UniProtKB/TrEMBL annotation:
Residues that bind [4Fe-4S] cluster 1: C58, C93, C127
Organism whose genome encodes this protein: Candidatus Choladousia intestinavium
Name assigned to this protein: tRNA-2-methylthio-N(6)-dimethylallyladenosine synthase
Ranges for domain TRAM: 423-486
Recorded catalytic activity of this chain's protein: N(6)-dimethylallyladenosine(37) in tRNA + (sulfur carrier)-SH + AH2 + 2 S-adenosyl-L-methionine = 2-methylsulfanyl-N(6)-dimethylallyladenosine(37) in tRNA + (sulfur carrier)-H + 5'-deoxyadenosine + L-methionine + A + S-adenosyl-L-homocysteine + 2 H(+)
GO molecular function, one term: metal ion binding
Assembly mode: Monomer.
PROSITE patterns reported in the protein's UniProt record: MTTASE_N (PS51449), MTTASE_RADICAL (PS01278), RADICAL_SAM (PS51918), TRAM (PS50926)
Domain MTTase N-terminal intervals: 49-166
Length: 492
């Protein structure tokens, strides 16, 4: 479902002025210029110009893509179904090698599309572009790419797009880092009723396997007033559910001039924006999860009973090597406190298999935590060596066949426990936010419980974006089949 209007009204800028240097004014200047350029080009071709933005990676990238789409639509591009479009942008991820390979694969295909569409503009941005060796390779062997920019200067998209449209050269603009946050740029939401909201950017944790701190830069929090203002606007526009986004939301606010805790921010969101029905957040680092946050979740009527709490490994020795700064025991103790305070909580996690030096005993510790923590779902990853991270230089890399065998044993366990856990609501009537028409069967709608569990139930598209009571008739592994219930739900 698409939202009709941009989230922001336009800043009026007279294009006869000299180019402003202050942001976001400067970008609104280029938006005005782009409007003219796009109109001219479209008149010349006798049809509207089309765009396609393809997103790889995490929710942070998905949110960034909404901002990029916001600008594209504001200047006159229309969304295309496929990559056979006038402007194609890949917003890339580099967290694991296969995320990287996917982009190169698709670029090969884009090159063939461009051969039949010489005026097409191909652009790349996102985390992969922050790696110098990637950019070198693109400059050498992917000359058909027109525009490359990184994560730190994404707010300059309008300006860079203008340069790309008015030049024949490859436009390349990558910054090493930044400490600035530019507010007040447009965005085009994917859903009318839910939205991600960045509360912070970057990461300071330097887990030894992870490339994110290198490509996303240092941690910086947005000011609570700016976050609240954005959410207020979203709520005014019909958004019921927000997801507060950051690599480590539990350390939110520590670097602000007037420090604020994440729990304080959550309370302000809940108190000051009554139109919201659901508040989610992602991701929580176990080392920073405070008792204040547990209490805030417990007391809240709107913070969803779902916590994504990445474990990575169950072995205290490996956790130390990973620089995660908690032990197996501390993690399990945290889970215990969470379960006691919030009994209906869904817990999900991320786990890496095959970190350098991982032995069968270490792996068994991971399996043990999975049994004890009883995750609803776990995202399991095979360790991927990322150049420049401390773990990449570790000598004792685990052989592929050993990793694959561990991975499949872990997956089996995770699925077995997940199925059991998911079934715990069978027979109950619970509120479901209807999100879309079911892809396989158009007589069904697909929605989610606050625990983030998927529910399919008969219904019509007019219910999309509404929270309705659903009788959870049958659990099918990781989702439910249900029926709308006329009974009222009394929330505690
Ligand atoms: N900031 C989040 C995670 C962001 S990356 C956190 O700390 O929880 C998402 C997940 O990708 C991580 O939780 C981790 O499980 C996985 N990941 C990161 N780097 C990886 C690597 N080099 N190999 C395999 N998985 C990795
Ligand atoms: Fe990567 Fe660790 Fe930061 Fe998460 S907390 S983004 S895993 S360095
Ligand atoms: Fe990937 Fe960047 Fe997110 S590396 S996981 S898109 S922060």
């Amino acid at each position: 479902m698409n939202q009709k209007d941009n989230d922001r009204t336009e800043h009026h800028i007279d294009i006869a002025d000299t180019i402003p240097s202050a942001e976001p004014k400067r970008q609104y200047y280029f938006i005005e210029q782009l409007k003219k350029t796009v109109k001219e080009k479209s008149e010349r071709l006798g049809r509207p110009l089309s765009y396609k933005v393809v997103t790889f990676g995490c929710q942070m990238n998905a949110r960034d893509s909404e901002k990029l789409r916001g600008i594209l639509e504001m200047v006159g591009y229309e969304p295309a179904e496929s990559e056979e479009a006038d402007f194609v942008l890949y917003n890339t991820c580099t967290v694991r090698e296969n995320a990287n390979l996917k982009v190169y694969g698709r670029l090969g295909y884009l090159n063939s599309v461009k051969k039949n569409r010489p005026e097409m503009i191909i652009a790349l941005c996102g985390c992969m572009m922050q790696e110098p060796k990637v950019v070198e390779k693109l400059q050498k062997s992917y000359r058909f790419v027109d525009l490359i920019f990184g994560t730190h200067n994404i707010y300059k998209f309008a300006e860079l797009l203008y340069l790309a449209l008015t030049s024949d050269r490859m436009i390349l603009d990558i910054w090493k880092d930044t400490d600035r946050i530019v507010e007040e740029l447009p965005s085009k939401r994917t859903y009318s009723f839910k939205s991600g909201v960045n509360i912070m950017f970057g990461c300071n944790n330097f887990c030894s396997y992870c490339i994110v701190p290198y490509v996303r830069g240092r941690e910086r929090s947005r000011r609570p007033e700016d976050i609240l203002e954005e959410i207020r606007r979203l709520a005014g526009d019909g958004v019921l559910e927000i997801m507060l986004l950051g690599q480590n939301v539990n350390s939110y606010g520590k670097t602000l001039e007037e420090p604020v805790s994440f729990a304080q921010l959550l309370r302000r969101v809940e108190e000051e924006i009554p139109e919201l029905s659901r508040i989610r957040f992602m991701t929580s680092h176990p080392k920073d999860l405070s008792d204040e946050l547990i209490q805030t979740m417990k007391d809240s009527r709107k913070i969803c009973r779902h916590l994504h709490l990445p474990l990575q490994s169950g072995s205290s020795r490996i956790l130390k090597e990973m620089n995660r700064r908690y032990t197996k025991e501390q993690y399990l103790e945290l889970v215990k406190r969470l379960r006691e305070a919030i009994p209906d909580l869904s817990l999900t996690t991320d786990i890496i298999v095959g970190f350098p030096g991982e032995t069968e005993e270490d792996f068994q510790e991971t399996m043990d935590v999975v049994r004890q923590a009883e995750y609803d779902t776990a995202f399991t990853f095979i360790y991927s060596k990322r150049t420049g991270t401390p773990a990449a230089a570790m000598e004792n890399q685990v052989p592929d066949d050993v990793v694959k065998d561990r991975f499949s044993r872990l997956l089996n366990l995770v699925q077995e426990i997940g199925r059991k856990r998911t079934g715990r609501f069978q027979g109950q009537i619970l509120p479901v936010l209807a999100e879309s028409v079911n892809e396989q069967d158009s007589s069904l709608l697909t929605g989610r419980l606050e625990q983030n569990i998927v529910v399919h139930f008969p219904g019509t598209a007019d219910l999309i974006g509404k929270i309705v009571p659903v009788y959870l008739r049958e659990c099918r592994g990781f989702y439910y089949l249900g029926e709308r219930s006329q009974e009222k739900i009394y929330e505690s």
